[in-house]
Amino acid sequence: MPFAFALDRAARSVGLGLATFGLLAALLGRAGAQEAPAAPVTVAKPVVKPIVEDDEFIGRFEAVDQVDIRARVAGYVAEITFSDGALVKAGDLLMTIDKAPYKAALDQAQATWEAAKARLDFARTDLERATTLQRTGDITTQLADTRQQNFATAQGDFNSAKAALDRAQLDIGYTEIRAPIAGRMSRRQVSIGDLVTADQTVLTNIVSVDPINFYFDVDERTYLAYQQLSAGGLNTPVGDSRNQVKVAVGAEPRPIHPGYLDFTENRLDAESGTMRARAVLPNADGRLIPGLFGRIALLGSEPYDGVLIPDEAVAADQDRRIVYVLKPDNTAEMRPVRLGPKIDGYRVIRAGLKGDDTIVVNGLMRVRPGVKLAPQTTELQPVAETLAEDAAR
Q: Which of 26, 40, 151, 237 has a CA 20 to 30 Å removed from the CA of 12?
């Protein structure tokens, strides 16, 4: 009997264990049957408004005029009258070469000219007297010819002396080195007392400030697209709205410096397949300096109603760009899109999205296929808030 009692006790223990397991399984099944909580996301409709697409290119500023200043006469630097980096006007005095040797040469040329002038006056009077006497026969023909020759010689000496005097006056004028253009000076490259060689020694450099040029390269494909966009391509007349441009420098979020296109090269570069173009920008405050990099925005399309969304609403799926569109049952549908440029702080959607779709703009990491969402609707402003804040500043 003890053996039978042991079997009965074991059977009751197994039955209790199975019952406990069944209860746990039922509880877990009931818990699994409960729905997961809805994921909170922010949704909004895209901004739809008339836009014109811009194409951006990288370029560099260059001065309209830049001149290496050299002396036109040799000598020692006597005076420097400009400050490094100063703004000067055309004709301002920059440096002076020692005038003493040129003053002496001028005085000598003046004396030579005065002597030649005296000889010429005497030869003219002598010739006039000979001409009068020749009419009455009181002078020989040979003597009259001699006086004519003396006058011609005196005239030549006078002209030579006058040319030497003019040259001496030019030389003494060249000892004053003046700014050939208005602009900003570079640093001086000579000091007082340095010997300057005429037409060789670079004394300093000057670049014009206002306006300033901006050079950039356009690839062949884009250049052909511009030709199709307008009959003139990039060569639209000055003042045409199609050639208005804006340039951004440094960390500026968008191009804000206005200008206009005024030149393109007459051929494509065979090695790079690009066309060099130039824009001109006003620069009265001198903030734009030669050598500075910038981003230029060109008119890239005709006006049309564009669909714009924040960059934060765009996700990546391998090599595709996607957005999540909210469905009526509060789940999200993955929608491939084709992106365009940024306008007013938003990304242009060229294909894949309509203006009446509701998209997820915040909380993309919580979106999963089939997962219920708890959408909170917001309204996108016509201009992104960050750009509006920048404009207010």
A: 26
